[in-house]
Amino acid sequence: MKKTNTKQFRGVNTFGFTVNYAEITRDSVHNIFESHIHDDCEIYINLSGDVSFIVEGNIYPLKHGDIIITRPFEYHHCVYHSDKIHKHFCISFSPSGNEHFLDLFFERNPGQGNCLSLSGDDTEVLISLCHKMTKEEENPIKRYYNFFSLLNLLSDARVDSKGEKHFDDVSLAVEYINLEFAYPIRISDIAKKAGVSVNTLERHFQVTLFVSPREYLRKRRLANACKLLSDGATVTEASDKSGFSDYSSFISLFKTTYGVTPLKYKKSIKK
Fold this sequence. Notes:
10 helices; 9 strands
């Protein structure tokens, strides 16, 4: 009797990725880590510099080889503590349709943070892969082989603690905004939910997230609108379901932020 063993695997949707290597200071015009929310997954690898990384109010002091991962629509940015040169890699890619093999990003256990670390040898392998991906490579198989090798390496990484929280009111405010941004919210409502005055909340937001509560709310709504548009929603639906009360203002704000109208953004999304 002939024995067979067959295993069927789900396919991989077409996607692209970008790899950026940078050596910058906090005053550099090329500093790509301005506070932001976007619809990509992101992998950041620290090589040097006196920096920390903030993700959704959690603050991670970083050393050589530390890795920060963020999934779509997580607020994040880098904080510079001095003028030391900040060397790092940043890899971003769209997870659309491929979430089933990206457990590292989408299936993290409650309480787990965004900071990963590897052993010394694996860290050097990781950095080598990043350098390879920044070089011109004509063979697309090798490019994607290096990318998936990197993901496989990260799957064995240790997840560090959730990081430090400077102010409880900021964490409470961020949690409230993330739950209620689609509805009319006043800054006074957010401050009340966080248990502090408006002035205190604004001061703590600037110290921790380097934006005001109003700016964070705006970014969160715009990020959600991008997600809805990429999922097929109309411009009107994206505006209404993201908490924008004025349709014309939404279109103007979207174009100012992203350089295109919501409709052009929607048409540019490749399914």
